Amino acid sequence: MSSIQLALNDVACTGCIGKIKRGMEKYRGVEKVKILPGSGKIEVNFNENIIQSEEISSKIQKLAFRMFD
């Protein structure tokens, strides 16, 4: 299992961050998603045989953009 931390600089609302967390938990290969309080970051533990870190980053960006549409 691998881990990646990504900044959510454009997302200030804790409700929006929660929606991103729940959205990421639905993807195949994502094992655990954790919000890092006070840092504006999210940590994703994933199975690199199923999903790659680049895909995770892309999916988080898409989820974040949907919050503002």
TrEMBL record:
Cross-referenced Pfam families, in alphabetical order?
HMA
**Per the UniProt entry, what species is this protein from, by scientific name?**
Neobacillus pocheonensis
Membrane-spanning intervals of the chain: none
What is the protein named?
Answer: Heavy-metal-associated domain-containing protein
Q: Which InterPro entries match?
A: HMA_dom, HMA_dom_sf
Where does the HMA domain start and stop, copy by copy?
2-68
